[in-house]
């Protein structure tokens, strides 16, 4: 599976396109009978187990807790229930689901010498849910960027309604499921009883051209275009805020406060774009190199590199709650109000209207 799973057989067949399932099974049996060579990277991966597992555990802990609290605030606070926060809530839900599906099964599959041990049904279910949650997160990030663009650059235009927001979110989930369908259709659960090995892998037998077309189109749709949309949207927001002038006479203190607010927003914009691009870049570069020529990646370190790239991608689920909520005063104030039961102090909004948009 592209981008969200660990392929046992990627060093062997990730780009060769065998002509039949029988040839595929014969190849796997040959590998299983001689793990010392093709599966040398498995032994290397095992040596890094004490380091990798705590890192993944930290990602799961922070990702699940941070996104749960974010959803809790949105669901429990009526005034937080607006279009922008519904998009953020959808992002939090998909990120939380990504943490509990991508991480545990990926680790178990990578480190278990028997391969996939969760059965045929879970093979197809997990390999469906994993990429769907990844795509939903990416598309929701794009929707948030576009929504904020219209709210900031065109503040007088009518915002989309809650009903329209529901349709957009539903469309994101349906589009994600549609993009995953070809990969699931080419996923195989194969048991090799003599070798004690079970695999659950995406394998395009005799359809190398179709596999590459699917891989590159997925890269374009789920990374290049969303990253471009996010960059353009936040660039326009930054330009708008830079040129924003508060009407009336301002004191020096007010002017300094306004500049400080703008600097904070610009930093947040830069962090959002950087987090999106950096977190997902390694796994996409890895997949492209694997598709171009599997030999470009060191066979002995193949699984280790893939797992580290996967860890970097999963870390986006930890970044999003902080970038989209906890760095903002409104979410923090609502969370403190819920748990501390203290009256909220409303600060006067002495700033340009366009700069008050939640970023």
From TrEMBL:
<feature type="transmembrane region" description="Helical">
    <location>
        <begin position="51"/>
        <end position="74"/>
    </location>
</feature>
<dbReference type="GO" id="GO:0042923">
    <property type="term" value="F:neuropeptide binding"/>
</dbReference>
<keyword id="KW-0472">Membrane</keyword>
<dbReference type="GO" id="GO:0004983">
    <property type="term" value="F:neuropeptide Y receptor activity"/>
</dbReference>
<feature type="transmembrane region" description="Helical">
    <location>
        <begin position="303"/>
        <end position="327"/>
    </location>
</feature>
<keyword id="KW-0325">Glycoprotein</keyword>
<dbReference type="InterPro" id="IPR001402">
    <property type="entry name" value="Prolrel_pep_rcpt"/>
</dbReference>
<dbReference type="InterPro" id="IPR000276">
    <property type="entry name" value="GPCR_Rhodpsn"/>
</dbReference>
<keyword id="KW-0675">Receptor</keyword>
<feature type="transmembrane region" description="Helical">
    <location>
        <begin position="162"/>
        <end position="185"/>
    </location>
</feature>
<comment type="function">
    <text>Receptor for prolactin-releasing peptide (PrRP). Implicated in lactation, regulation of food intake and pain-signal processing.</text>
</comment>
<comment type="subunit">
    <text>Interacts through its C-terminal region with the PDZ domain-containing proteins GRIP1, GRIP2 and PICK1. Interacts with PDZ domains 4 and 5 of GRIP1 and with the PDZ domain of PICK1.</text>
</comment>
<feature type="transmembrane region" description="Helical">
    <location>
        <begin position="117"/>
        <end position="141"/>
    </location>
</feature>
<feature type="domain" description="G-protein coupled receptors family 1 profile">
    <location>
        <begin position="66"/>
        <end position="324"/>
    </location>
</feature>
<keyword id="KW-0297">G-protein coupled receptor</keyword>
<keyword id="KW-1133">Transmembrane helix</keyword>
<dbReference type="GO" id="GO:0043005">
    <property type="term" value="C:neuron projection"/>
</dbReference>
<feature type="transmembrane region" description="Helical">
    <location>
        <begin position="86"/>
        <end position="111"/>
    </location>
</feature>
<keyword id="KW-1003">Cell membrane</keyword>
<dbReference type="InterPro" id="IPR017452">
    <property type="entry name" value="GPCR_Rhodpsn_7TM"/>
</dbReference>
<keyword id="KW-0812">Transmembrane</keyword>
<feature type="transmembrane region" description="Helical">
    <location>
        <begin position="213"/>
        <end position="237"/>
    </location>
</feature>
<protein>
    <recommendedName>
        <fullName>Prolactin-releasing peptide receptor</fullName>
    </recommendedName>
</protein>
<keyword id="KW-1015">Disulfide bond</keyword>
<dbReference type="GO" id="GO:0005886">
    <property type="term" value="C:plasma membrane"/>
</dbReference>
<feature type="transmembrane region" description="Helical">
    <location>
        <begin position="265"/>
        <end position="283"/>
    </location>
</feature>
<keyword id="KW-0807">Transducer</keyword>
<dbReference type="Pfam" id="PF00001">
    <property type="entry name" value="7tm_1"/>
</dbReference>
């Amino acid at each position: 599976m592209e981008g969200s799973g660990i392929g046992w057989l990627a060093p062997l067949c990730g780009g060769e396109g065998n002509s039949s399932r029988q040839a595929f099974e014969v190849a796997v049996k040959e590998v299983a009978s001689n793990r010392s060579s093709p599966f040398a990277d498995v032994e290397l991966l095992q040596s890094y187990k004490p380091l990798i597992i705590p890192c993944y555990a930290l990602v799961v802990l922070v990702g699940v807790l941070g996104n749960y609290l974010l959803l809790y605030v949105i669901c429990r606070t009526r005034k937080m229930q607006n279009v922008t926060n519904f998009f953020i809530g959808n992002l939090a839900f998909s990120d939380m689901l990504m943490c509990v599906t991508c991480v545990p099964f990926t680790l178990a599959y990578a480190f278990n010498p028997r391969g996939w041990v969760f059965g045929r049904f879970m093979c197809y279910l997990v390999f469906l849910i994993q990429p769907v949650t990844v795509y939903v997160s990416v598309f929701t990030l794009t929707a948030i960027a576009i929504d904020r663009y219209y709210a900031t650059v065109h503040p007088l235009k009518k915002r989309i309604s809650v009903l329209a927001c529901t349709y957009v979110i539903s469309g994101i989930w349906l589009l994600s499921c549609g993009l995953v369908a070809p990969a699931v259709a080419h996923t195989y659960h194969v048991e090799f009883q003599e070798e004690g090995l079970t695999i659950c892998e995406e394998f395009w037998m005799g359809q190398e051209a179709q596999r590459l077309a699917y891989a590159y189109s997925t890269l374009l749709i789920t990374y290049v275009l969303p990253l471009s949309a996010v960059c353009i949207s936040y660039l326009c927001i930054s330009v708008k805020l830079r040129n924003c002038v508060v009407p009336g006479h301002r004191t020096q203190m007010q002017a300094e406060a306004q500049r400080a607010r703008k600097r904070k927003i610009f930093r947040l914009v830069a962090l959002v774009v950087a987090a999106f691009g950096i977190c997902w870049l390694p796994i996409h570069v890895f997949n492209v190199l694997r598709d171009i020529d599997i030999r470009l990646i060191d066979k002995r370190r193949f699984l280790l590199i893939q797992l580290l790239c996967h860890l970097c991608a999963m870390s986006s689920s930890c970044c999003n709650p902080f970038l989209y909520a906890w760095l903002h005063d409104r979410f923090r104030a609502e969370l403190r109000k819920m748990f501390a039961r203290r009256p909220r102090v409303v600060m006067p909004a002495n700033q340009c209207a366009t700069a008050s948009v939640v970023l």
